[in-house]
Amino acid sequence: MTPASTNVSAQARSKNGPAASDTGGAGRRVIGGVAALVSLAAVVGLLLSGGSYQPLPEGLPDSGPVVGWGLPILSGLTFVAAFATIGWLLFASFLDAKAKSKIVSKGGRKALVRASGAAVVWAILLLVTAWFTLAQILGIDLVSTLDPGVISTYWWDAVVVRALVVGALFAVIVAIGAAFTIRLATATLWLVVALVAVALPALTGHAAGLGDHSLAIMNGVGHSVAATLWIGGLIALAIAVSSSSIEAAVRRFSLIAMTCVIILAGTGIGNTYTRLGAWSDLWASGYGRLAVIKTILLIALVWLGFNMRKRIITGFVDGGPKDQLRRAFAKLASLELLLMALTAGFGVALSMTPPTRATIQFPTQAEELLGFEFPEPPTPMDVVFGISVDSVFLVLSLAGIFFYLAGVRRLYKRGDSWPIGRTILWIVGCLIVLWATNSSISMYASMSVGLHMIQHMTLTMLAPIGLVMGAPITLALRALKSSPTGGRGLREIIVESIHSWPGKIITNPAVVLFIYVIGLYGLYFTPLFGTLMSNHVGHIFMTLHFIVAGFLLTWVAIGIDPQPKPLPYWGKMILVIAAVTLHAFFSIALMSTKSGIGESWYGKVRPPWLADPVQDSLMGGQIAWGIAEVPTLIILCIIGVQWWRADDRAAKRRDRHVEQHGDKELDDYNAYLEALAKNDQKHGR
């Protein structure tokens, strides 16, 4: 029995429970036990995989055994601090059944205070890990790493170190924010910020020099976030096992845990694929053997999670004996925490073990920047029907179609209807996004301004029409059930978001127009474009901005979903005309350029078949001008039809009212005219 598991069982047997006794001390013992197991598993894992510290031959720069052995331990402790921070934030935001509709409960407030303290420790550990990492990269001792010249030169230039430093900054923000938070929405915001801090280091590491870097990055981020939510949530539940609301918290956590398991399984397979040179490396290499051990542990965790859902959650729902169920949960949670700690530790070791897949060497610097060799000159067939997979948007597009159809199916099963036209439009919108990001157009767009504009305009102006007219929010509100435990389920979050002040701000016409325009002038006429194009994460962010900016503009203009403050139809017309006018000026500026757009990027990755970059920018401006006309006309026609239907419905409502209650306004007006006529007769007029 580990310190963590012994303590959880002791809580379950306590008469007064942790809330009445030493909850803070119990939490420290649980986290301390998890930290010890993670660190031990990280060291053992490195020994098993052959990735442990080995002194370098004399003459080569070596940071020494303190850095070599201290770094995996620090990484493990950093993960545990992240687990604790996110676990308590998750408890305060979603799992606590005693929270009111908008305000955290007393127990949730305590969880936020503990999350604040854990975030401070997390930030410190991230900075120390960055210090050790830089020493390892440069091959110097820890003292030399603190030299002002080294700090000014390398602390921000090393990508891995920069990610850790920015993560520490986010952790500090979470620590300060959580310490003073009493609202559920704000606690959710700090949870999101903490998850971003977890994802940042996962964007670096083994994924950079390998093939399928899109898949590797997506897997790394998804794996880290899912593991942190799962382990952190279980830690929070283990500490609160004797709470009077633990039954509802366990039921709420069940769905989150199941989702995390699915993500971990998928990303684990993806990680193995992107980092192994051959399937035989699973048993022939230290990296592969460690991956197999981690997989076995994950399978055991899935079995335990299934057992917990089958026995304990079903017992809570059916009203079984609470004390007996809590003791059973404590035992299963203890064993699950043990396996989770070992899995996390082996995961740390896996991240520090060199993969067997060889780094790809490209013939030119331009192809090194692109991440692939120059393709043949583009032809219409290649651009339209060629394939260039982007795993992020492939998954997002297919997931959008799957969950939409699942919502429609749920409506049909309970006897409700849903317009088939909306379903078709949503699927078409998702398929347009899929084509623009996973066909050869996405590959050629990184080398040609003209082809980039085809991709940009498709994502910003064409795809959003189908996505918006599919009414996904309306479908979600109809298909999703209210939280069975009275907490903040997905449906409650959607309703809250629509009526929240951020929702009102981002749907304000001025803000919508600004977001749309900044993606044109603020991107292509500044160095930001080259910066975002130079790395895959920046490219993902830019593509998401294109989709979101177009979706917001289209949603405010023609959306049939509920909105915080809908515009009148004449206001929608003005908004669309203003957007297309600014878009036209952008196209003219693009066609008038004398040096080419995005020279900081396109000048570095110019393929042999692109001889004239100025002509390419001119073509980009012409495409931006031409493509914008058709979607704009479609949107204006839809507004016109919606306006006409709204007036028709208003007229029919008035006719029904007149039939039932009479037309008081018309009667009053006729009476007024009659009085005027009598007055005229009286005076001889």
How would you portray this structure in words?
This protein has helices at residues 3-13, 23-49, 65-95, 106-138, 142-145, 148-154, 159-179, 184-202, 213-239, 246-275, 281-284, 286-318, 322-351, 365-370, 380-385, 391-413, 420-438, 440-445, 449-469, 472-479, 490-499, 501-506, 509-518, 521-524, 528-533, 536-558, 569-591, 599-602, 613-661, 664-682. The protein is an all-alpha fold. It folds into two domains: 3-13 and 22-351, no CATH class; 365-661, no CATH class. Helix 3 packs antiparallel against helix 13. The termini are far apart. The model is unreliable at 1-22 and 206-211 (pLDDT under 50).
**How many domains?**
2
Low-confidence stretches: 1-22, 206-211
From the N-terminal CA to the C-terminal CA, the straight-line distance is 108 Å
Oligomer: single chain
Number of DSSP-assigned strands: 0
Strand content: under 5%
Give the averaged pLDDT, no decimals.
82
Work out the radius of gyration: 30 Å
The best one-word shape is: globular
| Main sheet specs | none
Class of secondary structure makeup: mainly alpha
Tell me the number of helical segments per DSSP (H or I, 4 or more residues long): 30
Question: Percent of residues in helical segments?
Answer: over 70%
Order of helices and strands: HHHHHHHHHHHHHHHHHHHHHHHHHHHHHH
Offer a few descriptive terms:
single chain; mainly alpha
Helices and strands in order, then pairings?
Layout: H1 3-13, H2 23-49, H3 65-95, H4 106-138, H5 142-145, H6 148-154, H7 159-179, H8 184-202, H9 213-239, H10 246-275, H11 281-284, H12 286-318, H13 322-351, H14 365-370, H15 380-385, H16 391-413, H17 420-438, H18 440-445, H19 449-469, H20 472-479, H21 490-499, H22 501-506, H23 509-518, H24 521-524, H25 528-533, H26 536-558, H27 569-591, H28 599-602, H29 613-661, H30 664-682
Helix pairs in contact: 1-2, 1-13, 2-3, 2-9, 2-13, 3-4, 3-8, 3-9, 3-13, 4-7, 7-8, 8-9, 9-10, 9-13, 10-12, 12-13, 16-17, 16-20, 17-19, 19-26, 19-29, 23-26, 23-27, 26-27, 27-29
